[in-house]
């Protein structure tokens, strides 16, 4: 931190800084509120995705109960080949989004598989997509949380440190300038009185 200059130019600089801080603070606080709102929304969506796992598993179990049978393993027929993430801008923060999912299916004889096999494959694909979406939703929550924390720190810096410091500096400089002005007035009066005495003494023929 630079040393405070107790002068009129220093006072002007502090006033300009205070004006700038007060101008910037409302926009920072607005962005903070927006980010907190988006973070809350992202957290709610994430929790909803997590909460959907169990109901979906029950639904699949009802539609394809054979999946619970020992020895049923569909991983040899289907696997997640790749998925692509995109980016979404939320209040100036880049957060991930799901662009595409690509599965790799092994050719199998349709006539040689049970009637429920296709439903099971589709259920596995949907469940995998649900897990990926939940993963990305968690990443969105983290990104928005970090951004909200960072902007909150900036708001606190302006509100609790920079603005109070500038106000205190202005007050300190004003007091110093007022004291200096009073001192100058007193010195001027003393010098004038002394000059008057000297003048009177000279007129009287002595010092």
UniProtKB/TrEMBL annotation:
Q: Does the keyword Transport apply?
A: yes
According to the record, the signal peptide region is none
Listed A to Z, the keywords are:
Ion transport, Transport
- What is one Pfam family matched by this protein? ATP-synt_D
| Coiled-coil ranges (or none) | none
Q: Does the keyword Transport apply?
A: yes
The source's domain of life comes to: Bacteria
Mind telling me which InterPro entries this protein's record contains? V_ATPase_D (IPR002699)
Membership in a protein family: Belongs to the V-ATPase D subunit family.
Return the protein name.
V-type ATP synthase subunit D
Which source organism? Rubritalea tangerina
């Amino acid at each position: 931190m630079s040393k405070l200059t107790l002068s009129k130019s220093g006072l002007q600089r502090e006033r300009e800084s205070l004006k700038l801080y007060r101008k910037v603070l409302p926009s920072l606080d607005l962005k903070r509120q927006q980010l907190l709102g988006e973070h809350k929304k992202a957290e709610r969506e994430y929790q909803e995705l997590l909460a959907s796992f169990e109901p979906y598993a029950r639904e699949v179990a009802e539609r394809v109960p054979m999946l619970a049978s020992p020895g049923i393993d569909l991983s040899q027929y289907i696997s997640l080949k790749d998925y692509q993430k995109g980016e979404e801008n939320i209040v100036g923060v880049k957060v991930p989004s799901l662009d595409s999912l690509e599965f790799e299916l092994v050719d199998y004889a349709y006539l040689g598989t049970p009637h429920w096999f296709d439903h099971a494959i589709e259920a596995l694909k949907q469940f995998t997509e649900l897990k990926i979406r939940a993963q990305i939703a968690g990443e969105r929550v983290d990104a928005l949380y970090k951004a909200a924390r960072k902007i909150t720190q900036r708001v606190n810096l302006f509100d609790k440190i920079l603005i109070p410091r500038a106000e205190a500096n202005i007050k300190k400089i004003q007091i110093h300038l007022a004291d200096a002005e009073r001192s100058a007035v007193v010195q001027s009066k003393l010098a004038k009185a002394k000059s008057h005495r000297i003048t009177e003494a000279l007129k009287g023929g002595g010092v």
